[in-house]
């Protein structure tokens, strides 16, 4: 649990980078053998690329650093429950364990809308720990969207 907090704090730091760039503040960190091998934060607005979610960016960096798409000995820490696209990438990369902060009732594909990561019809399942630093993760998103609404109304 102590390491989970440590790495979720790093994921939150990534999310704050997105916030500073007027991107939805979601951050992710990939950890293998107690070393960070990938980091990412949302960049959809900047790149105009729908696949540049925090998780995808972090997984790409981790695969590049490990020179392998198989991240079987790795854990992914992300501030928001992954969407279907990111859950698919997590399965494809063979991530061992996912730790996330806030649930996403509108797009969550891990526990909220779908349960893709523990579906035994896939050839890989992922251990999941939900709700780590949930309040901090959710608050960052609430603050961002409140400010966005104020900018639009103002």
From TrEMBL:
GO MF annotation, one: zinc ion binding
Gene label: tadA
Protein name per its UniProtKB record: tRNA-specific adenosine deaminase
Keyword RNA-binding: no
HAMAP family for the chain: tRNA_aden_deaminase
Cofactor binding notes: Binds 1 zinc ion per subunit.
Entry function: Catalyzes the deamination of adenosine to inosine at the wobble position 34 of tRNA(Arg2).
PROSITE patterns in alphabetical order: CYT_DCMP_DEAMINASES_1 (PS00903), CYT_DCMP_DEAMINASES_2 (PS51747)
UniProt record, GO biological process: tRNA wobble adenosine to inosine editing
Assembly and binders: Homodimer.
Principal EC category: hydrolase
Organism ancestry: Bacteria, Bacillati, Bacillota, Clostridia, Halanaerobiales
CMP/dCMP-type deaminase domain ranges (all copies): 2-113
Highest taxon of the lineage: Bacteria
Entry keywords, A to Z: Hydrolase, Metal-binding, tRNA processing, Zinc
Family: Belongs to the cytidine and deoxycytidylate deaminase family. ADAT2 subfamily.
Name of one Pfam family that matches: MafB19-deam
């Amino acid at each position: 649990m102590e390491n989970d907090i440590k790495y979720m704090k790093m994921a939150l730091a990534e999310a704050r980078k997105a916030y500073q760039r007027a991107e939805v503040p979601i951050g992710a960190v990939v950890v293998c053998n107690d070393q960070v091998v990938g980091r990412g934060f949302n960049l959809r607005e900047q790149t105009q690329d729908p696949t540049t979610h925090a998780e995808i960016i972090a997984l790409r960096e981790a695969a590049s650093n490990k020179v392998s798409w198989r991240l079987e000995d790795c854990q992914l820490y992300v501030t928001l429950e992954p969407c279907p696209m990111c859950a698919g990438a997590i399965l494809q990369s063979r991530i061992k364990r996912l730790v996330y902060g806030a649930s996403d009732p509108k797009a969550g594909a891990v526990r909220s809308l779908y349960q893709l990561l523990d579906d035994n019809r896939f050839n890989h399942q992922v251990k999941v720990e939900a709700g780590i630093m949930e309040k901090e993760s959710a608050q960052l998103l609430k603050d961002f969207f409140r400010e966005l609404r104020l900018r639009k109304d103002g």
